Amino acid sequence: MQTDTVIVFLQGATAMGCVALAAFFLRFWRRSHDRLFAIFALAFAVFALNRVLIVLLASSAETELVIYAIRALAFALILVGILDKNRARPPGS
User: Fold this and answer.
1) pLDDT by residue (tens digit) across 54-82?
2) Distances in Å between the alpha carbon of 55 and those of 15, 16, 25, 67?
3) What Å distances lie between residue 48 and 5, 40, 64, 66, CA to CA?
4) Residue closest to 68 by CA, chosen among 54, 82, 80, 78
5) What confidence category does residue 1 fall into, taking pLDDT thresholds of 50, 70 and 90?
6) Cβ atoms of 40 and 81 closer than 8 Å
7) pTM to 2 decimals?
8) Distance CA 57, CA 15 (A)
9) CB 18 within 8 A of CB 47
10) Is 87 left (phi over 0), alpha (psi -120 to 50) or beta?
C-alpha cells in the first residue's frame, strides 16, 4: 500500500519536527531559565510522542482515547505556560 507508507513517513516527519521544536525551546530555556520555554519544550515532546503513538498503535476505538488524551495534555501544557507567563507578578520581582 503506497498510501500507508506515505502516511507513516509524514507522521515521522511531523514527529521529527516536534522534537526539533522541543530542542529549540529547550535551548532558549537553558539560556534564560524562563519557565515558558521549558513548558513549551515539554509540550512539543508530548506532541512528538503523540505522533509516534499514532503510527505504533493501530487506529481503533480503544486507542483513540489515549491518542486524544495525550494531545489534550500537550495543549493543556501550552495553555498553562501562557497563563503562567501572563499572571500578575508582585512588584519588585
Assistant:
1) 888 876 666 788 889 999 999 999 999 99
2) 10, 13, 25, 11
3) 19, 12, 16, 14
4) 54
5) low
6) yes
7) 0.86
8) 15
9) yes
10) beta
Cα-trace Rg, the chain: 16
Q: Please state, in angstroms and rounded to a whole number, the distance separating the CA atoms of residues 15 and 11.
A: 6
Cell of 72: 489534550
**The C-alpha cell of 43 is what?**
509540550
Q: Of the candidates 44, 46, 48, which has an alpha carbon nearest to the alpha carbon of residue 22?
A: 44
Place of cell 537553558: 30
Listing DSSP states for the chain in one string gives -HHHHHHHHHHHHHHHHHHHHHHHHHHHHHHH--HHHHHHHHHHHHHHHHHHHHHHS---HHHHHHHHHHHHHHHHHHHHHHHHHHSPPPTT-
Q: What angle is formed at CA 91 by the lines to CA 88 and CA 93, rounded to 5 degrees?
A: 90
